[in-house]
Structure formats: structure tokens, C-alpha cells
């Protein structure tokens, strides 16, 4: 935060940003990692530098409250935010220790705001439960970037950015459909995430809607795992026992997919193709090597955290997005769920998470 401004002028400036005050149409580079060079020790954190013509702009302090890193994708979210902030010399990133407990996270974000951050980025442990806190922060004059798990009230955030769970299922279904287009009476199975999660339901709905375009394909089985390697192995073993033959498998999550691949190898099955979900580095390595039934994965890109830092920086500097005519950042951004196959895996390897 620029110490030369008074607290009163800071609050006025924030309110202008929150509610659409005029801003200079300056640029923002909002892509994730696209370099074809990767660091195996830091999978998913390599960043592309901002456009060379972009000026640094005014100093901005960004508060980041992310999740507990108990899953590969969640860890990648935290790493993407850290790495992205480091490429901007004028950005200071204040990070709260990740937590899956709502009460703990509320205390963390309140501490960040009381410490004087200009913009707050939150991936909430529970979007609904955190809504009132985010709403209070917005009303007090600190803009909030809501990352992925959405708050229950659009007034609780200035901008939401996240993935497309329905699109994941839709694109997985279309990829499988095209691979099996000429197979008569093709059968597919689905290894989903936990059924109590809305995102699981959205992924399944998208998958089913895509398959409806292929009358030669029937989904013959669906079982739910828990987004862990252990559950993926156990549930996949059950699926293999129940279904003696099928042509394709869609697995919602690459962490549980690692266990599914173990079960598949142990059963000696290879008559089908597998499509994963989220975009882990291990999955991409298998796709590139073409050494298993895994032929593609559908992204739920953790680079959204890097883009959230870009959005927060733009918001704190009253900038718009490079390539858009508007003077302000959008109110929401839904990221595309790209299908990564052997044809394009080189491009996406740097975004793969460990």
C-alpha cells in the first residue's frame, strides 16, 4: 500500500474501484503458464512474464486466503498465486496459511484486511458460509476477488473467477464420443467424485449431455470415489469387476485417477481408453509417453489463481484488461476446460500440477 496516501483517500479510491469509477484503460496480461519449458520440481508454478510493454504501475498489496493444500490441485492453487505475484515488482502478496475450516479462514481474512491490503483474493473453504464475511469486507471498502468456490451473494465479490465443472464433463464426453464414433454399441463407465458435491453433479450432467449426441454410446456404470488415490484404486477395482468389457472410462479427478491406473494395471485391462480430469503433471506425463490407457485429461486449471492475482493487481491499480475495451475488469470469468491429449500435451505440460 502506498504510504503517501491518507487512509481516507485510500478508502475513497477503493470505493471508486468497487463501484465502477473511471479508470485508465491500461493493460493486463491474464493468461496462465504457456511456456513449453518446465521445472519438474515445481510442476504447475512456472509463469510467463507479463507483456513487455506493460508498465509496472502503482504499488499494490494483495491479501491471499487459499485452501489447505491437502490435494494436488489445491496445492497448485497456492503455488500459482505465489509465483504469479513474484513476477510483479510492485505487488506485495500477504498470504494466510491455508485452511479448510470456515471459522479459521474468517479470522485469517479479517487479519489480512486489518493489516491494510488493497485487494483480497479468497478461495473459500465454503463459499456459502464465507459469504457474510466477504460482504462485510466489500462494504467496508476492500474489493474481493472470489476464486472458484463462489459466494452466495454477488455483492460479496467484485469479480469471480473459476473453472467450468459442467464444461469439464461436456468436453470429456465429446472427446470420448469422437473417439468411439465408429464403434457399434460402445459402452462407457464413469468414475466420479463425491456425490454430495455440486461440482460432481455438474461434471456428470455435462458428460451425460455430451453423450446424448452419440446414439451408439451407452453409459453402463457409474461409481463415486473421494478425490484421493486410495479411493480411486478401490472404486476402480470394483468397477472392473462389475464390468467385464467397455470401451471408455471418464474419471473426474487425476489424483483419484492415479489410484484407478493402479487398479487397471493390476487387473491387466487395456481394452478401453481413459480420460482424466483437472490436469495433473503425472497424468500429462502418461499421456505424453502413451504408456497406459490414459489418453487425455480435461483441465480444471489451477492457473486461475495466477489470473486472480492479475485481476487483483489490475483492480488495485484501476486498470482494465488488455484486449478489452472496458475500463474495468469483468465481474466474472469462467475458464475453459481444455482437453489435453497427445496432440497438444507439450503446450500444457508447464501447467500440470504435482
What report would you give on this structure?
Helix 8 links the parallel strand 8 and strand 9 (273-278). It is elongated, with a radius of gyration of 21 Å. It is built from eleven helices and twelve strands. The protein has two domains: 7-163 and 303-335, Rossmann fold, CATH 3.40.50.2300; 165-299, 3-Layer(aba) Sandwich (Rossmann fold). Helix 2 (72-86) packs parallel to helix 10 (304-316) and helix 5 (165-179) packs parallel to helix 6 (198-211). The chain has helices at 7-18, 72-86, 102-114, 131-139, 165-179, 198-211, 229-242, 254-267, 281-289, 304-316, 345-348, and strands at residues 60-65, 91-96, 119-122, 144-147, 159-162, 186-192, 217-224, 248-251, 273-278, 294-299, 332-334, 339-341. The protein has 354 residues and is an alpha/beta fold. It comes from Streptomyces radicis. Keywords: Signal. GO terms for molecular function: carbohydrate binding. It is found in: Cell envelope. Residues 62-316 form the Periplasmic binding protein domain.
In CATH, the homologous superfamily of the largest domain goes by the name: Response regulator
Approximate strand percentage: 15-25%
**So what's the CATH class of the largest domain?**
Alpha Beta
Could you give the count of β-strands? 12
Organism: Streptomyces radicis
Region (Disordered): 33-56
Protein name: Sugar ABC transporter substrate-binding protein
Keywords: Signal
